[in-house]
């Protein structure tokens, strides 16, 4: 008799659980796309940041849109180095220039966030990678919450694939910043007004700079937010 009661109790709990799962799945947004309807595509490897906190769940979803039309969607179901990434193919019938927006689905809160972030479609472009994924923010920008610029303070430009360039984490969230690098005498050896792409490898006017300490200024002129620091150039020879 007790066995029957236990079985019935377990069955009821199972049905309730399944019902809850089905409800959660039913309320998730139906962001779908037919790749056959488009000529061009680009890729993105991205993480979700909601209210300036990176999400650690496989159930969240990123959607990329042109107006109300979904152009790409994926769950954050790839775990690399402890980060939960979504791998997206993004589609268009225009080879470049189409402006796209983002939405985020937070599975835990069952909430869709409209974001103010925008990207420009470019055939065969790749946004983000495993070591530096593209960050999709619900609240943008979030760099105001960072007192220290997330960057390595040295480069070793010897073409070994490691620390060859001055690289800033989550560089896509700093596109309105200018980057200036000075030598120890205050001579400007590098300047990028905006849109820095982690591609400076310690050169000046096409020549390699000497080993030593340099100084960087990373600044948003509109907000006044800036970061300063020392950058060491290290060479094996």
Structure at a glance:
This protein is mainly beta and 237 residues long. Helix content is 11%, strand content 42%.
Q: What best-fitting shape do the alpha-carbon axes yield? A: elongated
By DSSP (H or I, 4+ residues per run), the number of helices equals 1
Question: Could you state the order of secondary-structure elements as H and E?
Answer: HEEEEEEEEEEEEEEEEE
Extended strand count: 17
Can you offer a commentary on this structure?
This protein has 237 residues and is mainly beta. The chain has three domains: 1-27; 35-140, Sandwich (Immunoglobulin-like); 144-233, Immunoglobulin-like, CATH 2.60.40. 11% of the residues lie in helices and 42% in strands. The protein is built from one helix and 17 strands. The protein has one helix spanning 2-27; strands at residues 40-50, 53-54, 61-66, 69-75, 78-80, 83-92, 96-106, 111-122, 126-127, 134-137, 154-155, 178-182, 188-192, 203-204, 207-208, 212-219, 226-233. Strands 1, 2, 5, 6, 9 and 10 form a six-stranded mixed sheet that branches. Mean pLDDT is 85; it is low at 7-26.
